[in-house]
């Protein structure tokens, strides 16, 4: 039986919980290390190492560098391990200065000046974005990632109908208005970015009536391009489907409301390792 | 000085226990949370209405509780009251969270301690006696899955849900989906009860072997549910007094500072709460002590048995684990009741006008009362505060660790049982470190 381990760095454990929901691996794999569910002192030799969470403390970095030596294949799962995730919101200079000063603790692992993705320090063989990746994606990683079938973008997986003659004049906030079932959220004036977000999640959020916030990152079309490309693409979608003024879209896209995921899109194409090396994330390596 | 360091596993997040002894006399027992991301800082400047999407990322285990607390905090600030159907669907969401969490804690985190294995996934490959444990991992995951499916149904996604919005929820639940969910829960109920019975028996055997149920000195108890037929959606916080065992205070979330003292600790990224110098306890045992009747048949029977065998209030820490099993059964039964009623057709959300000001949102999360407090200026978050249930338990964890350390450290030697005891003590409180440090 193949062996796998999950190295949890600084994150929310959502990825691990999603993995637990993909229980079919129990028959095919032996989980030898994942502190959330297994008591084991250290990462042993494994076929697959999943890394979740961002590198936030010096201890995270130490554990990461030790663990990858034991693995045949290294997989970064979830937004935090791939592009920094939610902890990256703390990387605005003002915020960082504040909390690094207030959270100076002499007896616990030191916080690094900023949060880093795993591949800033080690080589990653496969990336599985999502916050968290769905159970189906986890199963694909552990079985045969190359056979995983998905649409290019979330939009194609959502199942809501696009209406040609319904054109909203203004954007609604995520929390506003009565959501009509079965009708495209953009038609209803929501700032949904499913049109350029990577497919494969099966669109649970738009199906439930909430706009896509882009947690799976850019689709293959945009993943190796800089942020201007997906930005322009989303604006073009709204220009075609709505009468919302361009500057309102622009403001919406640049507002912090989408900062959590959308601003990390640019990080995919221009990923620099600590120390200056350049490591683009080719689409072939992203599930 | 002898310093013993115990890394922790089968809990959420990164933490360790440090015990110091001199000449076999325990000097201190500390619980250190070793991770930190800075949510209270990084949400500053975010549009207030985005909080229900941002804050679930505090914790993937407790994301539902944060999602709902966040929406309630905004509704408090905006002066909005959601329609009844929306409240029912949110209660369902909280029950899904309770079911999922208690199943995880009971079976995946603490069952291995009763069976003497490192992981539940090891059980079927080890030599253990017969039928009660056959396929235990698969059955535990089946029960847990019912909880995640319930969250998905009521919340859109089972981790980081999206369906609760200011003024209500994004939509109702169709009859076919509700009925399928009900059938899945009906199937899970006997499986959960059988697993819990086994768990109860193994817990009794464990305490007999150890000669203790752990730290059983009185403590104050804190919960947002109480009395008959509790609703984990949360309304007021109740405090059960240390001496009397009576409810000595009841207060809304916005008055928590008048009752609870929250202090930072220099040796940990997690703060600690106390009440007038007393050790506080939240989580399942607090609820078992303050709730008289759950109102659903099987769960109520377990609760009555619990009160009969251990008293009300009960104080020994390994009883937290048993109380969790009662709630697991309750969550299944109560969700089945709700799903039998129509959950669509009525209004699910009402319009609102955002405004600046302050808001407090309270829910009874699986680990205890969770408060979100936001100050909103120009539509943006000027200040956010997360009052986390695990933080209320930190001093209680440390007290119980000390009790265990004193039991197993003697001038002659450190009993090897100490390592297992540390794990059991911490897991009894089911701490969540991602939440506690946020």
Helix content of chain A: 25-40%
The appropriate CATH architecture of the largest domain in chain A is 3-Layer(aba) Sandwich
Overall number of domains of chain B? 1
Distance between the termini of chain A: 24 Å
> What would you call the shape of chain A?
globular
Q: Strand order across the biggest sheet of chain A?
A: 2-1-3-5-7
CATH C-level class of chain B is Mainly Alpha
Outline of chain B, from the CA principal axes? globular
Q: From the alpha-carbon coordinates, what is the Rg of chain B to the nearest angstrom?
A: 21 Å
**Protein structure class of chain B:** alpha+beta
Specify the CATH homologous superfamily of the largest domain in chain A: NADH:ubiquinone oxidoreductase-like, 20kDa subunit
What order do the helices and strands come in, and which of them pair?
The complex is a heterodimer of chains A (287) and B (438).
Chain A: E1 2-8, H1 14-21, E2 29-33, E3 46-52, E4 55-57, H2 58-68, E5 71-77, H3 78-83, H4 93-102, E6 111-116, E7 126-128, H5 135-142, H6 155-158, H7 204-207, H8 220-223, H9 227-241, H10 246-254, H11 259-262, H12 265-269
Parallel strand pairs in A: 1-2, 1-3, 3-5, 5-7
Antiparallel strand pairs in A: 4-6
Helix pairs in contact in A: 9-10
Chain B: E1 2-7, E2 15-22, E3 25-33, H1 39-42, H2 51-54, H3 63-78, H4 84-115, H5 136-155, E4 164-165, E5 168-169, H6 175-210, E6 220-223, E7 227-228, E8 237-240, E9 247-251, E10 261-263, E11 272-275, E12 278-281, H7 284-290, E13 291-293, H8 297-310, H9 319-339, E14 357-365, E15 368-377, E16 380-387, H10 389-408, H11 417-428, H12 433-437
Parallel strand pairs in B: 6-12, 7-13
Antiparallel strand pairs in B: 1-2, 2-3, 4-5, 6-8, 8-9, 10-11, 11-12, 14-15, 15-16
Helix pairs in contact in B: 4-5, 4-6, 4-9, 4-11, 5-6, 6-9, 7-9, 8-9, 10-11
